[in-house]
Each structure stands twice: as structure tokens, then as C-alpha cells.
Design a protein that fits this description.
about 230 residues, mainly alpha, Arc Repressor Mutant, subunit A, 11 helices
């Protein structure tokens, strides 16, 4: 587990994108670019088998130096997260399983995965059915190696898209869900997360980048009306 939450979020964001500028990260996390540079240094001190590098005029990117070491590092992070992550709902457990499969380059035992989320084999099987339905949307495939485990295969960029959209669908917009009571009255009890999810789908389709602050301003400025 990383020393503090912002480093973890920065790592996940950089890992999920080809290049990310310091300005983008500073805007996203509401800190200075100097703080971002300090966070990147701290992140590199914790990473194993990989490091965050800076490409001029492009931004930060993750360079994997030793794939086996890096994969072991990812596995250790996910295993530790299972002790602290909120797995109270089936949706949380499904996202956790999908996230672990997408980050892994090796086969994972179904028994081990079921144990991680504390469910029976039958329940785990139902979760896998749900996961398999979303994979074709990202040109990904689910394969089984008898006696060994399961694995998701596909292009790395497609895996990153799946991670961003399916395992952390609102991760980039944390303050959108934090509307005040007064602001919620403004929307006449419309489900704000539903509106946000629709906007994110449109932004992703057209490859539009934004952040939680701008997204919230968009909602407030235009007083969107949604028919559910």
C-alpha cells in the first residue's frame, strides 16, 4: 500500500494513461505542480520493477523495467487493498475482481479470487458471468487454463480503457458526488451520479478530457434536465 492516498491515485491515473502532464495532475488533485513533482519522487521510491518517467512536451508515463517484479508489486498492492477496500456490495466485489484480472499478466486461481472477496464458488461464478459480458466492449477476452486459473487477454490500451471505465468509473470526479444539500435541491432530487455517468460516457466516446471541478461547473451552469 502506498504511503498516502494521493500517491496511489496518481499512480493509478498515470498507469491508466499514455502520458499525463504535471499541469493535468495538479489540476486534477488540486495541488501545485511542485507538490506533484514531490509526489512523483515519493511514488518512484515505492515502485518496484517500474518507474514514472517524464517525456519532454508529452508528460509523465510509466516505464516498466522488470515485468515480473512489477507484476508482483501490483499483486501485493491488490492483496493489501482487499483488507481495506469496501467490499460490502456485489458491485464493489465485481469491480475488485475485474481490476485484479486486468492488472495481472498471469493466470489467477478462481479459488484465490473467491477467497479474496469472501464469496462462495457459485456466487463467484455469477460475478464472472457479469464480467465476461463487458469485455467485448473493450476487445478483451476471458480465457481459462484448466487446473491453473483464469486470465483476461487483449491490447494494453484496451485494458486501460476498461480499468478507467469499469473499475473506477467515477474516480476522476470525486467532488461531483459531494454536492451540498442546497445544490441537491437545485436539481429537484435528480440522481446526480446518473447525470455524471451519462456525461462521462459522452466525454469518453469523443476523447474529451476534463476533471471533477469542471464537470461540476458544467452541471451547475447549465442546470441539466434529465428524463429518467
Amino acid at each position: 500500500m502506498f504511503n498516502y492516498k494521493r500517491i496511489e491515485d496518481i499512480f493509478n491515473y498515470i498507469h491508466s494513461n499514455d502520458y499525463t502532464t504535471a499541469a493535468k495532475l495538479a489540476d486534477l488533485f488540486k495541488v501545485s505542480e511542485r507538490t506533484i513533482r514531490t509526489d512523483i519522487n515519493n511514488l518512484n521510491n515505492e515502485l518496484q520493477g517500474a518507474s514514472v518517467q517524464l517525456k519532454r512536451k508529452a508528460g509523465y508515463y510509466l516505464e516498466i523495467e522488470d515485468e515480473n517484479t512489477f507484476n508482483s508489486f501490483l499483486d501485493s498492492i491488490i492483496s493489501k487493498e482487499s483488507d481495506s477496500i469496501d467490499l460490502d456490495s456485489s458491485e464493489d466485489r465485481i469491480r475488485f475482481i475485474l481490476n485484479k484480472l486486468l492488472y495481472s499478466h498471469d493466470y489467477i486461481s478462481t479459488d484465490d479470487l473467491a477467497d479474496l472477496v469472501y464469496v462462495s464458488k457459485n456466487t463467484f461464478s455469477n460475478y464472472i458471468k457479469i464480467i465476461k459480458k463487458c469485455l467485448p466492449l473493450y476487445n478483451l477476452e476471458y480465457i481459462v487454463k484448466p487446473g491453473i486459473g483464469i486470465k483476461i487477454i487483449g491490447n494494453e490500451s484496451d485494458k486501460r480503457d476498461c480499468i478507467v471505465n469499469e473499475t473506477h468509473p467515477l474516480n476522476e470526479y470525486p467532488t461531483v458526488s459531494a454536492f451540498s444539500k442546497g445544490e441537491k435541491i437545485y436539481y429537484n432530487d435528480v440522481e446526480l451520479n446518473y447525470i455524471v455517468s451519462l456525461l462521462i460516457q459522452v466525454f469518453n466516446k469523443h476523447k474529451i478530457q476534463t476533471d471533477d471541478y469542471k464537470l461540476k461547473n458544467l452541471l451547475n451552469t447549465h442546470n441539466l434536465q434529465v428524463t429518467i
